[in-house]
Amino acid sequence: MLKLALIGAGEHAEKSHAPALALYAEQNQDKIELTAVCDINIKKALNFCQIFGFKNAYSNIDEMLAKNKIDGCLCTVPVPSILETTCRLLNKGIPTLIEKPLGININQSQQSADMIRETGVKHMVSANRRFTPFVKQALEWSKEHGAIHYVRSLMARPNRNEPEFIWNTSVHAVDTLRFIAGEVVDLAVRTMKGDELSGIWKHVDFEFENGIIGSLDILPTCGINIEIYELYGESFQSVVQIRDFFKEIRIQCWYKKRCKMDKFMNGDAPFCVKNGSYTELREFIEALEQGRFPKPNVDDFLPSMEICHKIMVTI
């Protein structure tokens, strides 16, 4: 039985990672134990014990590690603490699922990747859109109907005018396009300008190494909350729409002018299932059980951070 710990009991952990752990533990009682949760606010950690079923609560990482044998850890600390916390865990030989981004800037992200590689310890970067059920289904359905030639994504939000939006949030869209279409060999960025725009709007054109062409529109202050992923090939199209931060997800697949699939996933499904956190956790756990490295690792994810940096610095 794998003894798992969670470091960081903030909002994201409360909505995604902790519910995923609790659900997996409930459905696989012989596979994992929720051994410990750690947060600098001990009240939050204790609350996680009551809600999600962790056995022990701590406010100090060293104390938690000294008192418990941990086989794997989920690290969901604030961005400035990611590098230090991750390296402490990996240097102790503890496989770790690391919440993105890898650092506060591209230099720290590359430094994080170098240090993580040097440990040689199993790790995984949290890129939950890769595990979102409808995204995976759209990709699988499309491949069954032919070669993908064009991909398109929209990342739209209301009132997200913080400078780090592209780095912290739009990286999901960039990484998902790479997951669907492969590595990027060329990109062109256009910044949309206007006195009335309170955020940084971008249009990005991609060329992928396998010949697929793609585009991404980043509209952080357009007044709606939606992500769209579209895949096109000869005679087919598949579209995934994620509305209001996974309150509703829709997949539509068309072949030769006929709709072959039209499904919704709404409030009835657990949030951690809809947003891919549960399937992501399953990949992490199964990789540890099988003695292999989970995917994606830092080498898989770092190019998405580097592309976001290029998008940010292009005026």
Description:
The protein has helices at 11-27, 42-52, 61-67, 82-91, 106-119, 133-144, 165-181, 271-274, 277-290, 298-313, and strands at residues 2-7, 32-38, 56-58, 72-75, 96-99, 123-126, 148-156, 184-192, 201-208, 213-219, 226-233, 236-243, 248-255, 258-265. With 315 residues, it is an alpha/beta fold. It has two domains: 2-127 and 277-295, NAD(P)-binding Rossmann-like Domain (Rossmann fold); 129-269 and 304-313, Dihydrodipicolinate Reductase, domain 2 (2-Layer Sandwich). It has an eight-stranded mixed beta sheet, covered by helices on one side. Strands 3-2-1-4-5-6 form a six-stranded parallel beta sheet, with helices on both faces. It is globular. The mean pLDDT is 95.
What can be said about this structure in brief?
This protein has 315 residues and is α/β, with parallel strands linked by helices.
